[in-house]
Amino acid sequence: MSAAGVPAPLQGQVAIVTGAARGLGRGYALRLAKLGADVVIADVNLASAREFGEALSAPGVPDEVRALGRRSVGVQADLSRREGAQAVVRQTLAEFGRIDILVNNAGGAFTPVERSTASQMPDEDTERMLDVNYRSALYCCQESVPAMAAQGFGVIVNIATMAALDASRTGGRLAPYAIAKAAVLQYTRYLAADVGPRGIRVNCIAPGSMLTERIKKQAAERGMQNERELKRIPLRRFGEVEDCANVLEFLVTPLSAYVTGQCISVCGGQVLTPS
Question: Is the terminal CB of the chain with fewer CB neighbours within 10 Å at N or C?
Fold first, then answer.
């Protein structure tokens, strides 16, 4: 129940959020908990918030979820390997008995910017970005779908990036990351067509330049979030974590019951072309 005594829309549901120990993933996990879901926090490092000085209201994100009155467990796993995804799904089913929502947020752009153009990107950067961005989502989807299909219901939200929609947004840089996230976007569409008849909806969020602690700390060296970029945003501000969480709320609740296979760009208008 909500504070006002109204049933929470996700009451009784179980969500997995990957890359949820900090940043956008943490924001997604907390929003799902506020909507009534029990939440599994999956991350390669459950203490990663400390690395970027992100302040938590409890020792860890699972503790923050529990403080909201929901059940939560943290699972530390390398989701770029299928065994990691299997471990997360196995522990979720053992603890909660079901999977209703999967948010594939794990990933990021952390290969060197100076060698990230399409004509220069080395094999190791391409493979690393495919592993942490595309394969992590692929494995988690494939391992979660059987449980969702068995209950005839499920919602999957994959996280892409504005750069996967418009190459001009990065000046041609970050190609390995953008290409891996473009694979996530296209996989979303194919998976939606595949599992829709089994009661599973699959959609995608493409964040723009978001004010997470990691991005704020790395912005200068990566040429991000400067005055020039701000002037290219029609809404004239960078995104907040809550901006993406608001769209997630739409995609995981009955408000979007007839929406699947779509990508919503949360970018303040930086991308104005169809996704």
Answer: N
